Amino acid sequence: MLGILALLVPKLILVGVLLLTAGLFYFFSSRKIRSTILIIAIFVGSAGFIFSVDYSVNHILEPHQRNRIHVLLGQDVDLKGAGYNVNQSLIAIGSGRIFGKGFLQGTQTKYNFVPEQSTDFIFCTVGEEWGFLGSSVLLILYLGLFIRLILMAERQRSRFSRFYGYGVASILFFHFAINIGMTLGLVPVIGIPLPFISYGGSSLWAFTILLFIFIRQDSYRYDLV
After folding, report:
1. How many domains is the chain built from?
2. Are 183 and 89 in contact (CB under 8 A)?
3. CB–CB of 196/207 below 8 Å?
4. Residues 94, 201: one domain?
5. CB 3.0–4.6 Å: which of 17, 51, 137, 161 could bond 156 by disulfide?
């Protein structure tokens, strides 16, 4: 009977029915109303989230954005279209090996096989020219910056300065993680620059202003009561 039901209704509805049945059984066996309400709320919230994601992907995102997600998940293989940038980036990073090809000696980046190699895909240039060691040094430097920002935020006496410091660290970290994730094919390509490395005046000005405002606040932390 359960096998026939699984063939007739979607799997999501089947799971929902099973969870709801388990919640009702738990309620009638133990009479714990709060636990039952919590189980039902979790079920309703999870189902709503799943359906909202499906609606967002199919009706809100643009076609090229959906293609990038499908390529990332392996549903489509489009090495000449939506997956071209990421594929060329992976080739460039892999060709750098351990020590890299040398400064301005990368073939993939030198001959413009990788699009946007000075902005969104700047990390593949580092990987090809400086290899695994150079990329590791860059990652360690970023890690040191994030740790330093967190320590500075922790020593602030003002609540606003502390929250601002965590905000700056979060902004820089998410730009760092998403940009490098794009070049490695771990997240969809969305065009986020690598802080202080990617070419571009607006992003450099924005990151610099955010950072120096926090440094200025840190210098006045002993003047606050």
Report:
1. 2
2. yes
3. yes
4. yes
5. 161
In terms of domains, do 53 and 157 share one?
no
Q: Is 71 a member of any domain?
A: no
Structure tokens at 133: 């060691």
Q: 52 near 90, Cβ under 8 Å?
A: no
Q: How far apart are CA 88 and CA 109, in angstroms?
A: 9
pLDDT tens digit at each of 225 positions of the chain: 434 433 344 445 545 555 666 665 555 555 556 666 766 777 777 767 767 776 776 777 777 677 767 666 655 565 666 667 777 888 888 888 888 888 888 788 777 777 777 788 888 888 888 989 999 999 999 999 999 999 999 888 888 888 999 999 999 999 999 899 888 888 877 878 899 888 878 888 999 999 999 998 888 877 655
Q: Is residue 108 part of a domain?
A: yes
CA 78 to chain centre: 22
Between the CA atoms of 19, 24, 28 and 32, what dihedral angle is there, to the nearest 10 degrees? 80
Let me know whether 134 and 184 are in one domain: yes
Which residue's structure tokens are 């410091």? 165
Same domain (yes/no): 48, 111: no
Residue ranges of E strands in the chain: none
Alpha-carbon distances of 52 from 43, 58, 117, rounded to whole Å: 14, 10, 35
Q: Which domain holds residue 182?
A: 84-223
Residues 36 and 97 in one domain: no
